[in-house]
Write a structure and sequence with these properties.
There is one protein chain. The chain has about 280 residues and is an all-beta fold. The protein has no helices and 23 strands. The protein has a four-stranded antiparallel β-sheet, with no helix packed on it. A hairpin with a 4-residue loop joins strand 14 and strand 15. The chain is globular. The chain starts with 10 loop residues before the first strand and ends with a strand.
Length: about 280
């Protein structure tokens, strides 16, 4: 059975609360100004939108804290007017409780396993590429560190043990990225740079934290068709798995035995046996 829930124009991202009771959808809105950019709150039991929380222009990514009490939203803005903020929503009241200044055009956002830090990629724009990750203290809403990484960082994910944050350096069409940046979460510094394929975009760790899987979509003129496998202990590329053309999104099954990859150009989903 499938249910379709109206949420508003141009929904872009979704995150599920840890208890599964609510889904949070970034809705970019419509019209030239997109003044109705929101995060739609959905009750998953009834499949009803119970709140629409007004946020800044173009909510690009959404992350829910491990305790379910906060939703952090990366506000991307527009190509001509990139945003410089992220918003924190109080899930008890469904209101924005804090707006935190970061770098240009925040893209990806994730919360550490202990809920104490939010990591935000500052992706910039084609005219002014970003190259940093902001580390936010979720209790004080202060930026504790701004970490230089590769050009146009896109997605960020933290290892299950919370010791490192991995960042895809997607680059630009003219100069695509070919690296993963690794941030030491203890001191908020760049500790490693791992070479991978063209334009690394999305990534996710295995449940045991021993591997990171990265999509390599390439560029418009040179599309990729593979998944990079990184050994987190050696911090090195250990395998490249062929998949469909232009793999973008990626997810790992809870038991770690399967990887699912959405292949944009070949209209397919690849399923990889990690064994």
């Amino acid at each position: 059975m499938m249910t379709t829930i109206p949420v508003g124009p141009n929904p872009s991202t979704v995150a599920i609360a840890p208890d599964g009771r609510h889904a949070y959808v970034g809705v970019q809105g419509g019209g030239a100004g997109r003044t109705n950019s929101t995060v739609a709150v959905i009750d998953t039991a009834s499949n009803v939108v119970t709140a629409n929380v007004l946020v800044g222009l173009n909510p690009y990514d959404v992350a829910v804290s491990p305790d379910g009490q906060q939703v952090w939203v990366a506000i991307n803005g527009s190509p001509s007017t990139p945003s410089t903020t992220v918003s924190a929503i109080d899930t008890a009241t469904n209101t924005v409780r804090a707006t935190v200044a970061v770098g240009f055009a925040p893209g990806g956002i994730t919360i550490s396993p202990d809920g104490r830090r939010a990591y935000v990629t500052n992706s910039g724009s084609e005219a002014a590429p970003g190259s940093t990750v902001a580390v936010i203290d979720t209790e004080t809403d202060l930026v504790r560190a701004t970490v230089p990484v590769g050009q146009v960082p896109m997605r960020v994910a933290v290892t299950p043990d919370g010791t490192a944050a991995y960042v895809t350096d997607v680059g630009t069409q003219a100069l695509p990225g070919t690296t993963i940046s690794v941030i030491d979460t203890a001191d908020g510094t760049l500790s490693s740079t791992i070479p991978v394929g063209l334009g690394p975009y999305d990534l996710a760790p295995s449940p045991d934290g021993r591997r990171f899987y990265v999509t390599e979509p390439g560029t418009n003129s040179n599309p990729g068709a593979s998944i990079a496998v990184i050994d987190t202990e050696a911090r090195a590329l250990v395998a490249v798995v062929p998949v469909g053309s232009t793999p973008i999104g990626l997810a790992v099954s809870p038991d770690g035995r399967r990887i699912y990859t959405a292949n944009a150009s070949s209209s397919s989903l690849s399923v990889i046996d990690t064994g």
